[in-house]
Amino acid sequence: MSNEFREFLKKVGSGTHTGRDLNRQGMQVAMGMMLQQEATPAQIGAFMIAHRIKRPTPEELAGMLDAYDELGPVLPSLATATQPEWQNRVTVLSCPYDGRSRTAPVTPITALILAAAGVPVLMHGGDRMPTKYGTPLTEIWQGLGVDWTRLSLDETQKMLATTGLGFVYLPKHFPQAADLVPYRDQIGKRPPIASLELVWSPYAGKTHLVAGFVHPPSEDRFRITLELRDRSCYTTVKGLEGSCDLPRSRTAIIGTFGSIAGDKPPEWERLHLHPEEYGLGGHDVPLESDEKLIEDLRAVIEGKSIELTKSAIWNGGFYLWRCEVCPTLKLGIEKAEMFLKENVVAQKLKEVIHC
């Protein structure tokens, strides 16, 4: 047993009246001890459930991210002498690791659209994961012909630099974090680690972080956490099942902070986007089966007009606008539709497959 970790556990697990939050440095140490298995399994499980009940503070989330930066994978910056970092600002699409189970995701198509437009995109995640055990991004990409799980970190960096797409795969690239995954099933709840994953950027250069969320308190915690971490450009999305995917069945609630070019003081802005105003309203396509999902995603990429195509255009258009490829949302939507109809996205997928 670690006596040092026991003190951390006593602080977060002592209840409403006597429990205390950890400071940023203390949380970094505690997270590091869990990642390196210096705490016992009993201590780790107890800490996770106690921290879940208490709820993490932004300062604690910042400390957890500090530990991930210290011990986890970090891809080098794409910046060069002739291309400054803002021109290579990587958009990090962060979605819940336990996947999707109710609605069909279009995140891979969004990533392909952005990469085809010259916006580098980095994703991260793992395999099927508790507590939801939903369809993860890795399996969707495999269904499209791209197996991110086989690449080393160096190969992932090469893919990002060459094709504009990369994926940090937890079991291969960050096994210490992957070793904590079984605890999620054992405690029966998402621990605060699931929250930190939504604001983690395993990249050394400038990023545009996109964090999905479900409940408004999560967004508030993310904003303060990212402020503590001096992040100058990010987007929060009340997305489908907490993902980065904008809904079509309701108003899209989005928060933006900072610009891609970084040419003006960052300010927080709240957006309420109505898909019906752009002819893209409707229902969110249900996830009937993984086989049907892959079939539909392939149809969208091939330029066929199905219901999921509208979701892809809505999301692709928004992110092209947010990433400053297009000056207006309307033009972003038009460009996303053109990319699909004229096989630009299909060509980008072939490039990634054959790289």
UniProtKB/TrEMBL annotation:
Task: Give the Glycosyl transferase family 3 N-terminal domain ranges.
Answer: 7-70
Q: Could you tell me which residue ranges the Glycosyl transferase family domain spans? A: 103-341
Q: What InterPro entries does this protein's entry cite? A: Anthranilate_Pribosyl_Tfrase, Glycosyl_Trfase_fam3, Glycosyl_Trfase_fam3_N_dom, Glycosyl_Trfase_fam3_N_dom_sf, Nuc_phospho_transferase
- Give the top-rank taxon of the lineage listed in the UniProt record for this protein: Bacteria
A GO term from the CC aspect: cytosol
Among Gene3D superfamilies, the record links this protein to:
Nucleoside phosphorylase/phosphoribosyltransferase catalytic domain, Transferase, Pyrimidine Nucleoside Phosphorylase, Chain C
Q: Please list the GO biological process terms of this entry.
A: L-tryptophan biosynthetic process
Q: Which SUPFAM superfamilies match?
A: Nucleoside phosphorylase/phosphoribosyltransferase catalytic domain, Nucleoside phosphorylase/phosphoribosyltransferase N-terminal domain
- GO MF annotation terms: anthranilate phosphoribosyltransferase activity
Q: Which UniProt keywords apply?
A: Amino-acid biosynthesis, Aromatic amino acid biosynthesis, Glycosyltransferase, Transferase
Q: What name does UniProt use for this protein?
A: Anthranilate phosphoribosyltransferase family protein
Species source reads Zarconia navalis LEGE 11467
